[in-house]
Write a structure and sequence with these properties.
heterodimer, A: about 220 residues, about 80% helix, B: about 260 residues, alpha+beta, 5-stranded mixed β-sheet, 7 helices, about 70% helix
């Protein structure tokens, strides 16, 4: 069952990568960075599966992936924001998040276990970026149909997935210690939201190139 | 255990439901904001266009004023002096030469009169001083000289409008007359001013060849009828409504409604 889930998950990532490869020339800088993130995610997941089978341990793979993920998402949003203040928030927040990710690993000696605190901080940071981008679009709406904008789907996917993740990772340690079956039951929600994220990313690649340049500078 | 499962399901649905509600709210708000943004953009563009037009008109009026002064003070003086010289030359005994000088004097008098008319017609201060109705009357007198049968009809007591408004209305009327003279192949022009307590109605009619109204609107859109577009823009600038109605072979009717 675990492997089946992983295969479905990897298939969707692969689909997103194929779509990205087809439309790579039309992709904007933020979407190209997202493509790199997707490729890294794919490699990470494959490595994690192999490690789980071979050495029965794959937490360290996700530790390293956390750094790359935060770094790439930070720059995806840095290039998505039109306003200077939001860009500064994205970069300063991103580097702070990277620092906190390292601190949580060091404090919990979490190379060989799940970094729940780090994941919670990372999720909060990404949800904040999503909200900032939603706010910016509300303040400066420049396209008539937002549903046809690739970045809207990326942002929606990230927003839903990492919002669920905040709740999941915030309660992870508690449930892991006190109620493991409950944690097992929470996992499908997280898995579902993860699939939703990658489907949203597929939609965003599918929508490329947009009808016109969506993000104008409003400085 | 089943209680825990129930809690998880409820929590899960609540979280996803909240996020879904947020997304729906976002899309609705975005659409509202976009409509407002488009309206604001249009308003700004229209404001910018009006400012641009206002500036253009100011420059145009200033140019008119300068030319008018130049005609009156310089060219007019030179011609008058030439006429005086010719009068002195009339004393010669040669009859043929005398006749030629007399003809030249008549031509010069006509040129001087035409220049004075042009100077008055262009002079902003003059138009603002005598008022719209009298300025139109004066303009029609000039048109009459060009063999046009022209009539000005005034209904209601004449009310003086804001001088800037009157000037713009006069320029619209001049543009209309110019179009009739140049393109309409008309023989008669009828202008009617109706003063009411709230609005001033101006009707300009001719008996020319008329035009197709469809072509008229597409012409304006495509940027072909520059004169007609100018009339529309000027009317818009003073909050007036300008309507052009025409049919091939039945002349053109221009109706302007301007708040008093």
């Amino acid at each position: 069952m675990w492997l089946t889930k992983r295969i479905i998950y990897l298939t969707i990532i692969l689909l997103a990568l194929v779509l990205a490869a087809i439309k790579y020339k039309a992709l904007t800088r933020n979407m190209r960075l997202l493509t790199i993130l997707m490729a890294v995610t794919f490699c990470t997941e494959v490595t994690a599966i192999v490690c789980a089978y071979v050495i029965r341990q794959n937490s360290f793979v996700y530790m390293a992936f956390g750094f790359i993920q935060i770094f790439l998402i930070m720059y995806v949003y840095r290039f998505s924001f039109a306003q200077r203040l939001q860009r500064i928030i994205a970069l300063s927040g991103g580097y702070s998040c990277l620092l906190l990710w390292s601190i949580t690993i060091w404090l919990n000696k979490a190379w060989l276990q799940v970094n729940a605190e780090g994941n919670t901080i990372k999720s909060i940071y990404i949800v904040l970026l999503c909200l900032l981008l939603f706010m910016e679009w509300l303040r400066y709406p420049s396209v008539s149909n937002i549903l046809k904008e690739p970045m809207f789907w990326v942002n929606t996917g990230f927003f839903l997935f990492f919002s669920v993740n905040i709740f999941f990772w915030a309660g992870y340690n508690f449930f892991a210690k006190n109620n493991l079956p409950m944690l097992r039951m929470l996992e499908p929600i997280q898995y579902g939201s993860n699939l939703f994220l990658y489907l949203c990313i597929c939609v965003s690649y599918y929508l490329f190139p947009p009808a016109r340049k969506p993000y104008q500078k409003h400085e | 255990m089943s209680n825990d499962l129930f809690k998880i399901i409820v929590t899960g649905i609540a979280i996803i439901g909240l996020l879904a509600v947020f997304m729906i709210w976002f899309v609705i708000m975005y659409r509202k904001n976009y409509v407002r943004y488009v309206q604001e953009k249009k308003l700004l563009e229209s404001y910018y266009q009006q400012e641009l037009l206002r500036t253009q008109l100011e420059i145009q009026e200033q140019t008119f004023k300068t030319i008018s002064q130049e005609i009156h003070d310089n060219i007019g003086q030179v011609l008058s002096l030439t006429k005086l010289n010719l009068s002195m030359m009339e004393r010669v005994s040669d009859a043929t030469l005398k006749e030629q000088i007399s003809d030249s004097k008549k031509l010069l008098s006509k040129a001087i009169q035409n220049l004075r008319d042009l100077s008055k017609s262009m002079n902003t201060d003059n138009i603002q001083a005598i008022g719209l109705a009298r300025a139109i009357e004066y303009e029609l007198e000039l048109v009459r000289k060009a063999d046009f049968d022209s009539v000005l009809e005034i209904e209601g007591g004449i009310v003086r409008l804001d001088s800037q408004k009157e000037l713009i209305l006069f320029r619209i009327m001049q543009e209309a007359l110019n179009n009739i003279i140049k393109h309409a192949e008309a023989t008669a022009i009828h202008i009617k001013l109706v003063y009411t307590s709230e609005v001033l109605l101006i009707n300009i009619n001719d008996n020319g060849k008329g035009m197709d109204c469809g072509i008229l609107s597409t012409g304006i859109d495509a940027g072909k009828g520059l004169g007609l577009r100018n009339m529309h823009n000027r009317a818009e600038l003073i909050g007036a409504q300008l309507n052009i109605d025409s049919k091939l072979g039945y002349g053109v009717e221009i109706a302007i409604v301007v708040p008093v």
